[in-house]
């Protein structure tokens, strides 16, 4: 499923959501401006490398531009390619504005970063000896999805669903869309444990669970769980 939009209006402008999207896009433009070699060096310098984070490996001289602990944060703003960036920003735009609306701007940025840290650590713990950099906002965005599932499971989401070579547009409840997404992460993480990795599936799961756990602490008191559908 490829989400396009949701029918879930907000009462405030999603300033933080927009700011995060702009920040990730600007960082990616900076990455590609470095050329192929510079792009790779940036990923190794600012991406999260589990073995480096836990001290079992060290970066080559000249690559260590920030302390290893800070790469938990810097890795959230890097991306590995255009499709990686576009996919993440699409999900953040569709679901992030409602979560920001439910908790306010300041709380949302703290919530987003905590979900990103939780996601990064979840992946790092499962692959503690890995020396491949982990980059992307998907872990933090997974936290947004977990929060959205608890707050707005009945919201309608417009999605493109492939049927062979034909893309069909459907309006589905968020519970189905995000439940399917979470199931896909579970299946993919199981495949990764069998040696078929490449994507930080455990980061997605960790971020999603963190979002569900943190949303009761961050949402406004007047925001209920399992809200009924809202319309523009």
Give an overview of the whole structure.
- The protein is mainly alpha-helical.
- It contains nine helices and three strands; from the N terminus they run βαααααααββαα.
- A three-stranded antiparallel sheet has the order 1-2-3.
- A hairpin with a 2-residue loop joins strand 2 (about 155-165) and strand 3.
- It is globular, with a radius of gyration of 18 Å.
- The two termini are about 25 Å apart.
Brief overview:
This protein is mainly alpha-helical. It is built from nine helices and three strands.
Oligomer status: single chain
Q: Order of strands across the biggest sheet?
A: 1-2-3
Which stretches are poorly predicted, pLDDT < 50 over at least 5 residues?
none
User: Please, how many helices?
Assistant: 9
Q: Radius of gyration, Cα only, in angstroms?
A: 18 Å
H and E string:
EHHHHHHHEEHH
The fraction of residues in strands falls at 5-15%
Mean pLDDT: 93
Task: Give the overall form.
Answer: globular
Number of beta strands: 3
Distance between the termini: 24 Å
The structure class reads mainly alpha
- Helix fraction? 55-70%
The main β sheet shows up as: 3 strands, antiparallel
């Amino acid at each position: 499923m490829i989400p396009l939009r949701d029918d879930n209006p907000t009462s405030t402008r999603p300033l933080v959501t927009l700011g995060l999207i702009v920040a990730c896009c600007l960082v990616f433009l900076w990455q590609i401006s470095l050329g192929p070699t510079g792009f790779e060096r940036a990923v190794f310098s600012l991406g999260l490398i589990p073995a480096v984070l836990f001290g079992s490996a060290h970066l080559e001289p000249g690559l260590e531009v920030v302390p290893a602990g800070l790469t938990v944060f810097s890795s959230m703003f890097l991306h590995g390619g255009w499709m990686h960036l576009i996919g993440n920003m699409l999900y953040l735009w569709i679901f992030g504005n409602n979560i920001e609306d439910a908790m306010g701007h300041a709380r949302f940025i703290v919530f987003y970063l905590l979900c990103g840290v939780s996601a990064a650590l979840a992946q790092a713990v499962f692959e503690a000896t890995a020396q491949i950099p982990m980059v992307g906002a998907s872990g933090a965005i997974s936290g947004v999805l977990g929060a959205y599932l608890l707050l707005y499971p009945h919201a309608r989401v417009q999605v493109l669903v492939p049927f062979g070579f034909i893309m069909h547009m459907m309006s589905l409840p968020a519970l189905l869309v995000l439940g399917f997404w979470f199931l896909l992460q579970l299946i993919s993480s199981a495949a990764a444990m069998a040696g078929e990795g490449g994507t930080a599936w455990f980061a997605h799961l960790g971020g999603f669970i963190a979002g569900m756990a943190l949303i009761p602490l961050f949402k406004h008191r007047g925001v209920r769980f399992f809200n009924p559908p809202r319309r523009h």
